[in-house]
Amino acid sequence: MQACRQSVVKRIRWLVCQSLVLSFLVVLPHTVYAASYTLYIRSGTHTINGNGGAVLKVWGYTDNSTAAPMVPGPQLQALEGETVTVTVYNQHTIPHNFVVRGITTDTAAIAANSSKTYTFTTPKAGVYLFSDTLNNNINREMGLYGALVVRAAGGVKKAWTGGPSFDLERVWVVSDMDKKNWNDVAGAGGTVSTGTYKPNYFMMNGLGGFDAMHDPNSVLQDTTGKVGLLRIVNAGQFDQSLHFHANHFQIVDKDGTRLSSPEPGDTINVKAGTTAMVLFPLRKGIYPMHIHSAQMETANGVYLNGVATLLVGN
Amino acid sequence: MINRNSKILNSLGVALAGLVLVLSPLLPASAARLGTTDALNAAGGVTIQVQALDKLMSDNQTVRFWVWCAGGMGGGGGGMGGCRIAGPILELGVGQRANVSLNVMMAPQESPPYQGHTIHWHGLDVSQTEDGVPETGAAVLGDNYSFSVDSRYVGSHMYHCHVHTVKHLEMGMYAPFIVKAVDGAGNFTNVINSGGPSYDYEWNLMYSSVDPAYHTAVGDSTTFADYNPKYFLINGNEGRSQTAPAETVTAAPGKKVAIRLMGVQSVNTSFEIKNAGGSSQSFTVHNKDGFKLPATQTLTKLDLSPGQTADVMVTLPGTAGSWYPQVTFKNLRNGGSYSNGVVYTRLNF
């Protein structure tokens, strides 16, 4: 474990050394706006690396008919007011659906081995949770969730058209899984007793902190003083209280409600199934962002492999 | 004889002056402090140590905590004091420089890789070298911390250990850190935030939750994957009923009380103030996480999630009575309150 911690420190130092390189490498996962997406619902496994990590049985949306499920699913992107078409193929053995919270209302099932096309117009810029809402939260817990990012008109770096400006952005999809009581059971075709939920894996963009602290799509890194927009989606079952070191942020959006006067804070409670957007000015140095609730900083009890990433000012 | 008496008096005077000088960081600010009164000025040169504390809980179970103690110039001239859960309170004036040392030589601690302790200045936005995070370079076997803050920070913050925080935070190494506005002479003033209203009394309420299993587990135990809090505390005390509150304080009727809410618990909470008849009393919220809100909010219930703070104010009725500020601790899955999850305090006036 000493080696593990040294390894984490080394990784963080590596991050500093590679900061310039990273600044070029960091690109949004999908920078081309598409009016249509195709998703496939598949079962498979998802690995949490690092000490305490495990291979979890999951169900997820993915962007390839033969690929492993993605946790979270592919990031969908659109502009404010754009019409988007999403075709979902259910390649799993049980019914699923696809709902963009706050935008679409069709919760009807897509039967196994069939598909459905959803067409919707993005109402306003922000970040949205899409998920499978069926099966008493089991389908979402198993990994069927993701983020839809809706940008301001023209793709300008503003939280919304006419809204506050930012220099860089990250999408943080945070979540949790109960391996023993939910994933192992549902993944083997069993019946989950949903009254008991004891999550032991906590993820940032599907990663434990061991990976998320050097994942360029999670780490917020740029020149000191630059302002980052964090689009936060809590796709989990537990409320998550995200604590930022280094600086206070400004909350500009709480679950789709824009704040005319941003609220300051260093810790934001993003309730299960909701979203938030904050503006964070980078400070020189390396600082953590982590959940401030006991077990959520761990992977099955092993520290610093839960929901954690870094805030780095070059 | 007169000369001799004068000499004795002079000596006594010098001694008293010296005592006052030594104790000056202990003296309360000009507003009365309700509850614990041993706040230290972080600019006065404070040394923090860690001690084990065995606490007998309401069900006759004993839980071992690790708590902060303070000494040095800011702590009364060398003796260690304030050794309690959610203590000692540190205060710092805007523009003044905190000077705090952490000495872990005699501290209870875990084995490597989680040995030692640090202090993280939660909400104070200090530089990386003062941030107290081992994974980004903080020393774990003793350190000196020096920092200052500007007027935006007037309000309530916290300080806590950041080593293996899943355990160390739970163990009790947390306490309030209050930033004060200062006058032209550098004395603390009693305003809730920079340019904000003044108060007559201030009262710190720090929430925490306790899972006894976390107190005995060490290292990379799977115990830390499953949080089952059994005790809920305000200022380190259970307070399961209005007749057995976690803390009872008394203020004068008609006065303004600043209540500083600091949440270091690992579950969600709601704060309310009830009168003797059970009716909710409204209060004003001025700061969140130690920063001034764009507009003061008037509420009867305020949620605080793990790691958040808030500064609220109330004006007491003009006639004598009692209010019962209380905190409901709620689980993170569906917001249901825990068994024994309501902690009461009592504010007499």
Describe the model.
The complex is a heterodimer of chains A (314) and B (349). Chain A folds into two domains: 2-27 and 165-313, Sandwich (Immunoglobulin-like), CATH 2.60.40; 36-155, Cupredoxins -  blue copper proteins (Immunoglobulin-like), CATH 2.60.40.420. In chain A, 13% of the residues lie in helices and 41% in strands. Chain A contains five helices and 21 strands. In chain A, the strands form five sheets. In chain A, strands 10-9-12-17-14-15 form a six-stranded mixed β-sheet. Chain A is globular, with a radius of gyration of 19 Å. Chain B is mainly β. Chain B has two domains: 32-189, Sandwich (Immunoglobulin-like), CATH 2.60.40.420; 202-348, Immunoglobulin-like, CATH 2.60.40.420. Chain B is built from three helices and 22 strands. The longest helix of chain B has 22 residues, at 2-23. Chain B is globular and about 55 Å long. Chain B starts with a helix and ends with a strand. The model of chain B is unreliable at 1-29 (pLDDT under 50).
Summarize the entry for a quick read.
Chain A has helices spanning 2-17, 19-25, 138-141, 179-187, 209-212; strands at residues 36-48, 54-62, 76-79, 83-90, 99-100, 114-121, 126-131, 145-151, 168-177, 201-204, 220-222, 227-234, 240-244, 249-254, 257-265, 267-270, 275-281, 285-291, 298-299, 302-303, 308-313. Chain A is mostly beta strands and 314 residues long.
Biggest sheet layout of chain A: 6 strands, mixed
β-strand number of chain A: 21
**pLDDT below 50 for ≥5 consecutive residues: which ranges of chain B?**
1-29
Strands across the major sheet of chain A, in which order? 10-9-12-17-14-15
CATH architecture of the largest domain in chain A: Sandwich
Mind describing the biggest β-sheet of chain B? 7 strands, mixed
CATH fold label of the largest domain in chain A: Immunoglobulin-like
- Tell me the distance between the termini of chain B: 51 Å
Helical fraction of chain B equals under 10%
Shape of chain B: globular
Cα radius of gyration of chain B in angstroms: 21 Å
